[in-house]
Amino acid sequence: MTDHRRPRGARRALGLAAGMAIALSACAGAASPSPSVAPSGAPSGAPSVAPSTAAPITLNTIWMKQAAYSEDDVNAMLKAFTDENPTITVNTEFVQYEALHDKIVTAQITGSGQYDLVLMDTPWPAEFADAQIVKDITDQVPADFKSGVFDSAWTAATYKDRIWGVPWINDTKFFFYNKKMLADAGVTGVPKTWDDVLAAAKAIKDKNLVKYPLVWSWTQAEAVICDWTELAGVMGGADFIDTSGAAKFNTGGGLAALQFMKKSIDDGLTNPASLGFVEDDVNKTIGAGQAAMGLNWTYGYNVLNDPATSSVAGDIGVAAAPGTASTPTAGVNGGMSIAVTTKSQHPDEALKLALWMASQPMQEKYDANTFPMWKTSFDKTDLTAKAPDFWAAADNAFGGLVARPIVPYYTKLSSALQVAIQEALKGSKTPQQALDEVAAKLPDLQQ
Amino acid sequence: MTTEAVLSPAPRARGRRPWPETWVAAAFVAPAALVVVLVVIVPLARALWMSLFDIVLTRPGVEPFVGLDNYVDQLTSADFWGATGRALFFTITSTTLELGFGLGLALLMDQPLRFRWLLRSVIILPWALPTIVNALMWRWIDNAEYGSLNALLTQTGLIADYQPWLSNSDTAMWMIVIADVWKMTPLCAILLLAALQTVDREVVEVAQVDGAGPLQLFRHIVLPLITPVVLIVLVLRTMEAFKVFDIVWIMTHGGPANSTQTIAIYAYQTAYQGFDFGRGAALGYLIALVIMVLAAIYLRLLGRVGR
Amino acid sequence: MAIANGSVRPTARGRRARRLARSAFLYLAMVIALVVVLAPFAWLLISSVAAPVDLLARPLRWIPEHVSIDRFVELTIGSAPNDQAQGFRSALVNSTVIATTVTAVAMVVGTLAAYAFARLRFPGRGWLILAFMATYMLPPIALILPLFQIMGALDLRDTKVALILIYSSFVTPFVIWIMRGYIASIPSDLDDAARVDGCSRLGALVRVIVPVAAPGLLSTALLAFLMAWDEFLYALVLTSTNASKTLPVALNDFIGRFGLDFGLLATGGVIAALPPVIIAFAFQRHIVAGLTSGGVKG
Fold this sequence. Notes:
The complex is a heterotrimer.
Chain A: H1 10-16, H2 18-31, E1 57-64, H3 71-84, E2 88-95, H4 97-109, E3 117-121, H5 125-130, H6 143-148, H7 151-154, E4 158-159, E5 162-163, E6 166-169, E7 174-178, H8 179-184, H9 194-206, H10 222-234, H11 252-266, H12 279-287, E8 293-296, H13 300-304, E9 316-319, E10 331-332, E11 336-340, H14 347-358, H15 360-365, H16 381-384, H17 388-398, E12 401-402, H18 410-425, H19 431-446
Parallel strand pairs in A: 1-2, 10-12
Antiparallel strand pairs in A: 3-11, 4-5, 6-11, 7-8, 7-9
Chain B: H1 3-7, H2 21-50, H3 69-75, H4 78-110, H5 116-122, H6 124-128, H7 131-141, H8 148-155, H9 172-197, H10 201-209, H11 214-242, H12 246-251, H13 263-273, H14 277-306
Helix pairs in contact in B: 3-14, 4-9, 4-11, 4-13, 7-9, 9-11, 10-11, 11-14, 13-14
Chain C: H1 8-49, H2 52-56, H3 70-75, H4 83-119, H5 125-137, H6 140-153, H7 160-184, H8 189-196, H9 201-212, H10 214-230, H11 233-238, H12 247-252, E1 255-256, E2 259-260, H13 262-294
Antiparallel strand pairs in C: 1-2
């Protein structure tokens, strides 16, 4: 534990102490004096380093490896925080997105809990709040956050009109397309509606440029729900559960979106392998020049334009997701927030750290892999100059994100929908049948 | 075949009176019991306890005692039986193939062939590869767009076009079986080879002098001698295959459309995605119960062979 | 099927032809076995040195255009290792420590118990072995939450000790199960004879059974080592940092922010497979030695 102040590999060493730190933080929590009990004789002039005499504390945090901010970004932000708050040590753990939910649940429902700060995906606030894993911070969120951050970013932090986390990531699935293939097929301009997309795909297929112009992440995982929700958003609405708790996904937008998905497979425009693909496969397929168009998160932009991983770097364009005649665009809300746990011994410091990570200066400084969630950031030309089109697309998209249902039984609902959607896509049930069956099971899932 | 021999009192060593057999056995088993029980007993008891309550995490504080309801719910649910069926399918196919190929390989490696050291050495490779790498490797090989299986099969003209092996619910489970068989057959082969090597060469030679052909030799001399080990391997593989999790989770997540959702995947989803830890625990015990029934059947077989 | 011993010459020729056909068949089988075993592994090796674009090319380039061993250097000896490399290196050490300890513990206590189950008669023997196996039958899923709780209470979360304890608890039944079979297949006249010569039960086990069962013991030890080397789910949940992360967890971490870097994973996989393979090479000679020196002389 002694070498955790060495600059290089500090993160690893920090992590090294995590196990012991659980015990440590528990002890420290019991014994730590309140921060205000600074020695009375201390000079009052010291500005930001005021609580330097407070007992050192340790915050345990869990982050994810995929998408949005990179491990290095997060660590740089944390370093800046601990530089300014030298009495606080932050331990980090980076896990796969797939493992994030389950690790948090396992750690926080048993014993005294392991983490002070956890990352919370858009659909989780309901179950995390109901399970009393995360703390209600409604009254502690500064006003400038409430006014300055995109409304869509609050979705990942809000449940029952209370705030359970500090918004941190604002993301959605953008429309990536291969400019060269579109041009070769004689398609002019970027497809604006999903019908345009199908028409463009047909043109590309007819010219034999690729076998399947469209590729999606429709594997049996959360990824398929994201694509489906995004489509539903423009095809009649993605309000899948109404306020009384009744199913609406089997009519309107949900049904239309699934029918669209099925049709694109039947017409031979969507790669049938999409049923086993995650976002990574979508990138790789487009990157290998085996598909012309697809949806992906912000991070896809860098991956597809990097010659080391993509053989079509430079040919890739990006836009807000296509729409329909009535609705110009809708993106699925892929935001995440940072939440303070109920079992944290240092909720105030933890919140302070969360607010730090989400602050506008931090977000603007580390904008290489994800967009800031602050509205005014999009007016700063020094930021947007790097990729004006992409920033404009994001500004456009973030105004109208649609959320997956925020209900405490979300993961169960999502699993059931994933299966139903796959059954419809492989043709063993009609879209209507498949969704109706989930609707019928809804009371069961809700119990 | 040898347990009976123990029945007859062992010849007494001169002088010292040996411990009663039960005491000796207790002393021999105690360390193992300590290692196992120390770690497992509390979780076992705790899981059993949890399985009797309705513990849904999103309703903290409300955890009524429900007796065997969690078990009854599962036993009457189509999802449970579906997942059990898939687990059994996986178990039967993978275990049969692994044992069959394993026995073949073991016999091959037991032959006095040149270069058999090569096979004996490389046979360990698949098993030495961590499951996670094996699963990701096969996911990569089976990939519909850039997988080497598709490349191989199209370039040799065996199939006309790239196939989405893991995205097709008719083929996905078989791809997992192939991945598992490739990795686990060496385990069976090594265990069976070791058993073959304890077969008495003189008995074999005598039989050969008597003119027994290779098949007869195997059927009447070798097989009876290695049957206990065959059964042991069978039990082990069955137990592991029935509760298979890692390789499925990594390769398909139980998809497409739940076509590879085995019972352990179902239990995991119930506990973690449904936040339903009471039912999850009950499922754990049901899985153990099924395995125990299978094991009991094998043990009966084993006992019969042993007598 | 006594073979006629009349006309010697034709039979001899027939026998030679049959022997030739037989060994041709056996060598063919061996070649097929080698190809099936090695082909996926060869692809893994190729992937570990190929550039990412080569791996995604279609038609697939079996021989990559760009070959480099950068990834091996990066993961093993490269200076200034990145997070992944650092994680991998410490995981290599952690896994070695854990797997070795678990194998030692499980082999000693497991073989003792296996001997008792194979040779001794005592009340409750059948139930007891079933009880041992029952712990092996419960899926990790059912135990992971309580185990996490207990390890937290004992302050053992994110330590190697926790994994050693847990792994020993399921590798031991495995060893008992396997060794019981081997010991049962050794004629009991052997240890009876030893006991006539004045050996205690323990003496008989150590001096007679262990040498005779050496091939079985060694292969069981190797398999036990690999079980501990390979475990993923418990390690995933119970480890947080490089202090205790094992190889499977570190390798899982290779699925980084840009999805799966298969080349890097392949490199890690090849390196991770090496220690067991080296052990197997060493052990392969011993298995033969065990056969020739001891054997079962009846």
